[in-house]
Each structure stands twice: as structure tokens, then as C-alpha cells.
Design goal:
InterPro entries: Prefoldin, Prefoldin_subunit_alpha
Strand content: under 5%
Helix content: over 70%
Pfam family, one: Prefoldin
Number of strands: 0
Radius of gyration: 30 Å
Structural class: mainly alpha
Order of helices and strands: H
Largest sheet: none
Keywords: Coiled coil
Number of helices: 1
Shape: rod-shaped
Length: about 60
């Protein structure tokens, strides 16, 4: 009976270790995704500054001629 209990504990430990590794992989993926979202957010805040240009727009009767 004691051997059976030790085998069950070993199996539980193995399953727990596998689950911990799985959660760590998920955490790494989520952290990577957060980093990508942060990069996108930074790009979106920079875009208005990069896309503004000084232009001269013709106005009046000859502008559309």
C-alpha cells in the first residue's frame, strides 16, 4: 500500500510539474503579446507627429481649374 501511495504522489508531482511548465509557457506568450501591444500603442502615439506636414493649399477661383 505504501508503494502505491508513493507512486500516486510521484504521478501527481509529475502532473503538477507539467502543468507549471504549461502555465509558464502561456505566461511567456502573454508577456510577448503585451510587449507587442505596447509597441503598437507607442507607434500609434507617434504617427500623428510623423504624418503632419506643412503644405500650401491653393484657394480661390483658380484652385480647382
Amino acid at each position: 500500500m505504501a508503494a502505491l501511495g508513493m507512486m500516486a504522489e510521484a504521478a501527481n508531482a509529475r502532473l503538477l510539474h507539467e502543468r507549471v511548465e504549461s502555465v509558464r509557457e502561456q505566461l511567456a506568450q502573454l508577456q510577448n503579446q503585451v510587449e507587442r501591444y505596447d509597441a503598437v500603442a507607442e507607434t500609434l502615439t507617434e504617427l500623428p507627429r510623423r504624418l503632419s506636414h506643412l503644405v500650401m493649399v491653393p484657394l480661390g477661383k483658380r484652385a480647382m481649374a
